Amino acid sequence: MATSQTSPPIPPKYLQEDDLSEECKKFLSTLPKEKAWIGSYMYNYQGFWVADRIIQGVIACQQQFQAHDSDIILVTNPKSGTTWLKSLLFALVNRKKHSIFEQNHPLLVKNSHDLVPFLEHRIYGDDHDRNYSSFTLPRLFSTHLPFTSLPKSVQDTSTKIVYLCRNPRDSFISLWHFTNSLRLHYKDTNSIEEMFDLFCRGMSPYGPFWNHVLDYWKQSIEKPNKVHFFMYEEIKAQPKLQLKRLAEFLECPFSLEEENCGVVDEILRMCSFENLSNLEVNKNGKSSLSEAEYKLFFRKGKVGDWKNHFTKEMSEKLNHVIEQQFQGSGLRFSYI
Ligand code: PAP
């Protein structure tokens, strides 16, 4: 009698590990490895932790990406507000080309990850536009790469870097939820205790979290015209002020007329969690590159959700780590 055999469902692209080149697999075998937050393993490359699926793209962009003087690169630790700031940046920088009052503004039909690509999420040399030459100027990109691992041309040109930082407590909670949602394909989740331990030991994607933040923080002090450093919590608290500062840093300040016409307010409204998370593309769309559902990038969008998850012991442990890692830097994270 024939038995009916069902083959396991094909995993989404973000979980596929078999499309790595032989050369890359060989290289990975020489690196320290640790349990990954989503797939099988993450590897320590140039002092930071990165998933095997991404590493090929990281190396390719380091070798091949050619920055232009007018480029703008948004940098974040994962889950620090990347999707939000990509939207704000796109709306801000392209406001002459796409009026923020336009009925068919690109942000209404596309997720900001499709408008502002991650440098390391594509394999160069494929059939895509190799040097992003079809992009209009100024070109907008993003990356999670630590400062010392950026493609050299980013440092050698007048490319501007916008760094968004978030309270590590909330970044951790956001990351834990996000990676567990992606893991559902395996029908298992990672416990908060296990991932918290990895996070505190610096083993999170692109971590250690603190090294990532501190390197850009120092650069922003040394080169304030090159690196603009600000916090998710600051945008939440003073959105108008922070957006205007960002516009000044990018040398595209708002005119009085724009302010009077409500352009600043409309950009903030357009990019608000409430507006973006309710758009069709963000409710039902997914990334063509990774197949991750866009709705996963909109969870709560709040400051202080960590308090709903941390035990007293977790709080004390992370306070201690934060104190140790950031002491003397001048950087402060609120407990709110
Ligand atoms: P990424 O680094 O993987 O691209 P990222 O966009 O930084 O992810 O993380 C998503 C977080 O930003 C989520 O936080 P939460 O889990 O604490 O809720 C998400 O809700 C939040 N977020 C997304 N869009 C907005 C927005 N428009 N305003 C405020 N927060 C937002």
What is the class in the CATH system? Alpha Beta
CATH topology: Rossmann fold
Provide the domain count.
1
Structural class, from secondary structure content? Answer: alpha/beta
Give a short account of the largest sheet: 4 strands, parallel
- What does the overall shape look like? globular
- Share of helical residues: 40-55%
Rg calculated over all Cα atoms:
20 Å
Strand order of the largest sheet: 5-4-6-7
Q: Would you tell me the overall average pLDDT?
A: 92
CATH architecture: 3-Layer(aba) Sandwich
What is the CATH superfamily classification? P-loop containing nucleotide triphosphate hydrolases
Structure description:
By secondary structure, the protein is α/β, with parallel strands linked by helices. The protein has one domain: P-loop containing nucleotide triphosphate hydrolases (Rossmann fold), CATH 3.40.50.300. It is 41% helix and 10% strand. It has helices at residues 22-28, 52-64, 82-93, 106-109, 112-115, 152-156, 168-183, 192-200, 209-222, 232-237, 239-249, 256-260, 263-270, 273-277, 280-284, 312-326; strands spanning 33-35, 41-45, 48-51, 72-76, 140-143, 160-165, 227-231. β1 (33-35) and β2 form a beta hairpin. The longest helix is centred in the middle third of the chain and has 16 residues, at 168-183. It starts with 21 loop residues before the first helix and ends in a 10-residue tail after the last helix. The model has no long low-confidence stretch (mean pLDDT 92). 3'-phosphate-adenosine-5'-diphosphate is lined by residues 76, 78-84, 170, 174, 177, 271-273, 276, 297-301, 305.
